[in-house]
Amino acid sequence: xxxxxxxxxxxxxxxxxxxxxxxxxxxxxxxxxxxxxxxxxxxxxxxxxxxxxxxxxxxxxxxxxxxxxxxxxxxxxxxxxxxxxxxxxxxxxxxxxxxxxxxxxxxxxxxxxxxxxxxxxxx
Length: 123
What we know:
Elements: H1 4-11, E1 15-16, E2 21-25, E3 28-32, E4 35-36, E5 53-55, H2 59-71, E6 75-84, E7 87-95, H3 100-122
Antiparallel strand pairs: 1-4, 2-3, 3-5, 6-7
């Protein structure tokens, strides 16, 4: 459910799904952490950029898709947002977070790359 200024900002491409995720609450699905920048020409009727937004889904979809994520401790992730016949749609995916050993591996790679970059700058 979007306000008018949010739709205008979306049409201008002012959207960030970087830190966004879906959450099931009281049988409804909410999009949390999605940043839609304020619309320049809306003045005092502007929206709050990071407010939680309710996703309109059929009851079947919520039970099948979102409940599965809730039961198996998975996360609902928005992949992209697009327009179909004037309506904003969000493509959602289910994923699992990194395990501890995966995090360690990525931290090691990041540290090694940083050390290499430092050595190249000095050298």
